[in-house]
Amino acid sequence: MKFQEVCIEEVRSCVQETSEARLRLVAPSLLAGLSCGRLWRGDDGSAFVLWDQGNNVFYLAGRELGAPLQQPLHRLFQETIQPQAEAEASVYFCAKALAEEGQTFLSRALAPWVKGQDTKVFYQWPMAHTKYLPAPIVPDVTLVSLDRQCLCGGAVGNTMPVLDEICSMWPSVQAYLDNGWGVGAVRDGQLICWCTAEYVSSDSCGIGIETAASARRQGMATAAAAAFVRRCWDRGIVPHWECWQDNVPSVKIAEKLGFQKLETSEVIVGHF
After folding, report:
1. What angle do CA 104, 110, 115 make, to 5 degrees?
2. Taking a C-beta distance cutoff of 8 angstroms, is the pair 234, 111 a contact?
3. Which tens digits make up the pLDDT trace of 205-227?
4. Does position 135 have pLDDT exceeding 70, yes or no?
5. Could you give the angle at which helices 220-235 and 248-257 cross, rounded to 10 degrees?
6. Which candidate, 207, 203, 188, places its Cα nearest to that of 146?
7. What is the C-alpha to C-alpha distance for residues 254 and 272, in angstroms, rounded to an integer?
């Protein structure tokens, strides 16, 4: 038994077999070429391994997830995935089996790298509520579009962290400039909070959001996220929000804005 890399278009087979909300966000973006990933299939067709390279998440899908797959799966990670992840400095990862009974099996196959388990929450914006969305005003802060002029034209400072985020989540900065959008909070000419589209497809997207340490707990993220959701509404795009369950500030922002929880999931966390 071996895992062979296959065309990413076969990710449709993984999606058909699961109700996993996050994967249903990620897969269309992979198919559209707006996110990066790799896909392997067992040579008997019984299992798939999907690597979502944006957030370094691995999914195991299949009908018969048992002992015969453990060694081939371990070899795939040891011989193919680990070297690439280390070369790209993507050493922290999450993993999840799409079938509940496969989670223990996956933990055993990844045993040398597993550090434990944690819980993620996944939200979706109810588009009908957009007209009620609050528009927070933060003193001395301007909200700007994270477009070519802002990110590449020298209009504001501290754009490198945003460009790094874009490079990790998109095939290229150019792909983001052509297909993505974002909102930034600027104070004294410096970008202090940014909210960007990721996992973009024809009708959905995820949200990447971060606030500079010196500007936290001042309402920046709430204001930027509210403006970002408005831009999604203008495009007919449903935004999604994901965070760790114990990331209380992120959970509070999502729920304050009105995002609705779709699922809570246990994931394996590890380090190569």
Report:
1. 85
2. no
3. 999 999 999 999 999 999 999 99
4. no
5. 50
6. 207
7. 31
Residues 254 and 137 in one domain: yes
Specify whether 27 is located in the same domain as 107: yes
b/e code 222-237 from CB counts within 10 Å (16+ = b): bbbbbbbbebbbeeeb
Residue for token pair 């914006």: 125
Share of the chain above pLDDT 90, in %: 82
Contacts of 212 (CB under 8 A, 6+ apart): 158, 161, 191, 192, 193
What DSSP element (H or E) covers 82?
A: helix 82-87
Residue 21 lies in domain: 3-112
Q: Which residues does residue 190 pair with via DSSP β-bridges, in sequence order?
A: 157, 187
Within a domain: 269: no
Residue 226, domain CATH: 3.40.630.30
Q: Which of 39, 45, 38 is nearest to 1 (CA)?
A: 45
**Of the residues 56, 85, 112, the one at which a domain ends:** 112
Examine residue 227 and state whether it is found in any structural domain, yes or no.
yes
Q: How many CB atoms lie within 10 A of CB 245?
A: 14
Q: Which of 162, 179, 228, 151 is nearest to 33 (CA)?
A: 179
Instruction: Grade residue 134 by pLDDT with cuts at 50, 70 and 90.
Output: low
Say whether pTM exceeds 0.85.
Answer: yes
Amino acid at the residue 226: A
218: buried, middle or exposed (CB in 10 Å: 19+, 13-18, 0-12)?
A: middle
- Own/partner contacts of 74-77, CB < 8 Å, gap of 24 or more, are 74/109, 74/110, 75/3, 76/3, 76/40, 76/49, 77/109, 77/110, 77/113
